[in-house]
Amino acid sequence: MIDGVAMPGPSERTIKGIVLTIACALVILPFVGIVSTSLATPEQVTEAGGFVLLPTGIDLSAYRMIFAGGVVTQALWISVIVTAVGTALSLALTTTLGWALSRRGAFGVRAMLLLVLISLLFSPGIIPSYLVVQRLGLLDSLWALIIPTSISAFNVVVVRAFFVQLPAEVIDAARIDGASEWQLFWRIGLPLSKPVLAVVGLFYGVGYWNAFFNALLYMSDASKWPLQLVLRTYVVDGAQLGSQDLGIDAAAMPPQTSLQMAILVVSVVPVLLVYPFLQRHFAKGMLTGAVKG
């Protein structure tokens, strides 16, 4: 016992360690199996019946095929463009709206904040959303994957809460020095909001990268499908990837399972690579935006 707090005994620590080890194994093993299947030789995949946990050899043919310039490569580029443009646009709109809503006493702030909060409780249905996109002429346009989800009310509330708790003395001193509202936002608000921007940017980026439902609704042209819709079509729905889809010779086709697992790995790896660089801002940004406001 330390300072009146009972410490867990050896048996309790052992049980916790075992439980955590099992939980980690349940999370890691499926991903290891996916990566292993995508890297295994065609013969081993065929012999194993489609799922390999420990490959005896490394074969990169599945990755070479999906990056050969076919439908998967095209979908990957579309996802990269949509994610990059969408995240930049969403951050710009969210930060400017959050800054405006944080300026207490400004004209129309209460009414606009009320609209933002109402949108947290009520969302448009599928048919109204489709009709709006159709009337705007965005069907079969990449903008249909960006504009309808460009602002999240939750993220606006988080960013606003962060801006509200900025030191009023700094803002007032800058105003006395003649700084305009735009200069306050650009030179004080944004530089001090890096943690919350990292978190909100991660939310937006992952959302755009993983989105497939908007593409399913608004994209009838398969050449404009993002990677996640291709993933859904060829992995979840079980559609067969043909040689014409990959732009390769039919004789060089690896097993369908290897192709599906390779597509799955490609769809997951970018998020895994980005998250470690933003993780240190994650807790600070979320707590700052959630505690005060």
Tell me the count of domains: 2
**Sheet with most strands:** none
Strand content: under 5%
CATH class of the largest domain: Mainly Alpha
Going by CATH, the architecture of the largest domain would be Orthogonal Bundle
| General shape | globular
Distance between the termini: 39 Å
Transmembrane segments: 17-39, 76-101, 113-131, 143-163, 184-209, 259-278
Keywords: Cell membrane, Membrane, Transmembrane, Transmembrane helix, Transport
Organism: Promicromonospora vindobonensis
Subcellular location: Cell membrane
Could you please describe the fold and organization of this structure?
The structure is a single chain. The longest helix is centred in the C-terminal third of the chain and has 36 residues. With 293 residues, this protein is mainly α. It folds into 2 domains: 59 residues, no CATH class; 231 residues, Orthogonal Bundle (MetI-like fold). It contains 14 helices and no strands.
In short:
The chain is an all-alpha fold and 293 residues long. The protein has 14 helices and no strands. Mean pLDDT is 83; it is low at 289-293.
Features:
14 helices, Carbohydrate ABC transporter permease, single chain, MetI-like fold, 0% strand, membrane, 2 domains, transmembrane, 293 residues, mainly alpha, disordered C terminus
List the helices and strands and how they pair.
Layout lengths: L9 H30 L2 H7 L12 H6 L4 H32 L6 H13 L4 H10 L17 H12 L3 H9 L4 H12 L1 H17 L2 H6 L8 H10 L6 H4 L9 H36 L2
Helix pairs in contact: 1-14, 4-7, 4-10, 4-12, 5-7, 7-10, 7-14, 10-14, 12-14
